[in-house]
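Note to self: user wants both folds in one dump. Writing first protein now.
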Amino acid sequence: MRDNAFSDLKGDYQLDFHNPSRIIFGVNVIRDKFRRTIKELNANSVLLISDNVIKSNGILNEIYKQLEISGISYREHIFPLSGEPSLETVKKAIKYARGEHFDLFIGVGGGSILDLTKIMSIMSSNGGDLIDYRVTLKDNGMEKFKNNGPDTILIPTTAGTGAEVTNAAVFIENKIKYWISSNKILPKISMVDPMLTLTMPKNVTRDTGLEALANLIEGFISNYANPLSDGLIQQGAHLIFKHLPNAYKDGRNVSARTAMSFAAMMGGWVVNFPWSSVPSVGHCVAEIIGPKYNLPHGLCTGLMLPHAIDFNVPYVSNRLRLILESFDVDTNALEDSQVSEEIIKRIVDMIENMELPIALRDIVHGSKSELLELSKIVLEERQYLYGLPKFSPRKLNKKNVEILLGDLWDGTFHNIGL
C-alpha cells in the first residue's frame, strides 16, 4: 500500500452537508416496517407516485396492502414513463400536486420517479415555474426554494441512481438535461428494500449497476475527496464489482440484489457530498450524450466511467491503487501505470461481459465528427455547471476533450494506450 494513495485533511478543513432524516434498509422492510413508518408521520392525505411498468409488475401490491390496512386515505399518480421525465411531463405533475392538498408523497420506482416525487412535493409548496428553479451558472449554491414541501418517502426499485438519498432532481427539455438542487428536497425517509429490485430486466440491472459504480469511483478522483467519501467509495466499489455480474446473471439472487441496493445507496451519499462533486467529467459528458442519443443515463455513465479514469490518469494514478484493491486485486507488484491500466481493463471486461459494447459507435447512429461537436457545450457551459474547474484533477481544454470524445466513440483509451 502506498501512503500517498489516501486522502488527507488540511488543518482548516470544514464539512457542512445534509442527509435524509432516516434510512430504513433491508430485505422485506416494506412488508415489515412500511405501515408503522407512515403511521408515525401522521399523514392524512397521501399521494403514491409510480409508473406503469412498476404497477404492472405487481411491485406496488404490498404497498397497496399496507396502506389499506393502515386506513390512511391515498391516491395514486401513475406515469407512463420511458427514461428521464420531460419538462412537459413534470409541469403536468406539478399542476396536479398543486391542485390537491397532500401531506405525504410516496415515490416508488427508479431514479426518474423518485426525482418526480421530490419535484411534486417541493413545487406544491412553492410558486412559479420549475425552469426558474434549475441550477444555472450564476447560482453559486444559492437556495432558490422559500418553503419546504410536504414529507416524502422514497422507495427505489432499481439499484443505481441513489436518488433516494440525494438532494437533486433532473428533467429534460429540448434534449438537454437540467436539474434542481436543494436540501429541502431530501426525503423525510428513504426505504430501500432489495426485494423490489428482483424483477429488474438484465439490461436495467446492468445499466443502473454501472451508474452506481460511476457515482462512487468518480467521487474518488475528485480534488476534494476525503476519508469519509473514500471509505464509502472503496466499500461500495467492492460490493458492485463482486455482485453486479451475479445480479445480471440471476435477477432472483437476493444476496447479490441486496449488495447492489446497498452499494447504490452509498453511491447516492457520495453524489450528495458537496466536496466530491460527482458528477465529474464522466457524468458531465454522459448527461449530454444520453438525451442526444436517447440512451439510458446508467448506460452512458457506465460507458464513460473508464474514460473518466483514463482522462485523469496522469493526476490520480496513485489513488487508483485503492480502487483496484477494492476489486480484490493484489497490487504490491504493480507500478502506478500498471494499476491504471488494470483497473480500466477490469471495468471494460465487466461491461463487455454484460453484453454492452464499449465503443459508442457500436450503439448509436451518427458520426464521430457529430460527437466531437459536443466539446463546445462541455467547455463553454457544462463543465461550469458541474464545478469541474474546482473539482476535476485535470483541467479541460479543447484538445483533451476532443480526444476524450474520440476515445468514447472508438472505445479506445488514450492515456493508457489501449
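First done. Writing the second protein, which came from a different request thread.
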Amino acid sequence: MPYPLDSNAPSSSSPSSQSSSSPCGCTATFCPAPPPPDPPYSDPGQVTNPGSSSQNSGSSSSNSTYTGNPVRYSNGEIRMVAPRLSMRGFGQRWGHTVSYGNRIDSDYNGANGYRWFIKELPQAGKDGSGNIAIIGVVNDAIWFNKSGANYIARYFSQETLSEDTTAKEFIFTDTRGQAVKFFSYDASIAAAKQGQFKSLTDPYGNTWTPSYDVNNRVTQFIMGSGTTTGYYYTYYTSGNNAGKLQYVTLQRGSTNVARTEFQYYDTGDTHGNLGDLKLAIDQTWSGSAWNELGRTHNRYYKTNTGVEFVRGLKMTLRPEGYARAVAASLDPLTATDSELTPYADHTFEFNNSTDKRVGKEVVNGTKSPDTSSSSSTTSYGYGYTPAAFTGANGWTMKNVETLPGGDTNTVYSN
C-alpha cells in the first residue's frame, strides 16, 4: 500500500526580506497536512489551493502552505483534486473525487490509474514501521504512529485509530464521531483487500458497506433505504487496462443521474504510459441517453531524464481548455505538447526523477479558438534548499518561488 513521502504538519515559517508576501509552509518526514475542514472521505468539494479564494488565482497565496496554482511550498507536492461526481444525502456529501500524488513512495497502481487516489474509496496505507496513513485526498493523509498495540496521531490530530485484531480491521474515528473501517493487514486477508475501505458508520449509528467482487474490487456503495443514493463501479474487462475503472455511475434509487467515463493510456502511446489516466468524460442522464458535459485530459512524462520522471504529470486540460482546443481545430488527444500548452490549465516540470518536486509550472492557458490570437499563460519557478532542523527558529527547507514578473517569494519551512 502506498503512502505520501512527506506532507505538511502544523508549524511556523517566516518569509525573507525578499518576499512579496508571507505564506507559510512546513515539512516533516511522513507527516500529514493540517486536518481539512471535513474528513478526507466525506466532502468531495473542489479544493485546489486551501487557503486561497481562487482555484487558479495566477498568484501566490499569502496565507497558505500552497502556492496559488497549486504546489506545496515545503516539498514541491502538487495538489490536484478533481471532483467528478457529487451528491448530498443521508447526512453525507459523497461522490467520486480523484487526487494525484507526485510525492509518494512508489508508483501506486490504483483503479483510476497510476498515482491517482479516490477520496471516497479511502485507504489505510502502511509504512515499513507499521505506521498507518489514512488516505482520502492524498495531500491530506492523517498519520498514526504505531506504539505497541496502539496508534498515536501525529501533530496533535484529534482523530483516532484503533485495530480490532479479532475482526481484522482498523477503525478510524473523526472528530464528529463518524467511523470508517478498513481491512487490516492480517495475512488471512487477500493482499488486494488489505488496507481497503470496509464500512462507514455515521455519528447516529447508520452503517453503509461497499460491495466487492471476486477480484476484490468495489462494485457499489449504496446509502439509505427506500429511495437510495448509490455509486456503481464498472471496470474494463479486456485489453491492457483490464481491471481499471471504466465508469462510475451515480443513481438515485434505480434512476441514472450522472456518470464519469475514464480512459487510460495503452502500450506505445505518445503522451502517457500504460495505465496512466488519460481522459475523464463527465456525463448526465437525459432520461433516455447519456449527454456529455465536458472532458478533462492529462499527459505524463515517459522518461527519467532532466525535468521528467516516469508517470510524472506533465499537463492537464480541464473542460473549458479542452473545448477551446477543439474549437481551434485541434484534437487534444493527438496534438503536440507545444500546440496544447496554450490551452492547458497546468503544465509541470520537475526537479529530477529522484525527489520529484515541482521545479516549474505554467498555468492558466487562455488562448482563444481564434488561432490568430496570442496565448496567455503564467509561469512560476521553484528552487529548494534543504537544511538540518536546529530548533523552533530553525528551518528544514527554503523555497524561492520566482513569480511571473521576476520578483521572488522566499518561504522557510520547519
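Dump finished. Worth passing along: The radius of gyration is 21 Å.
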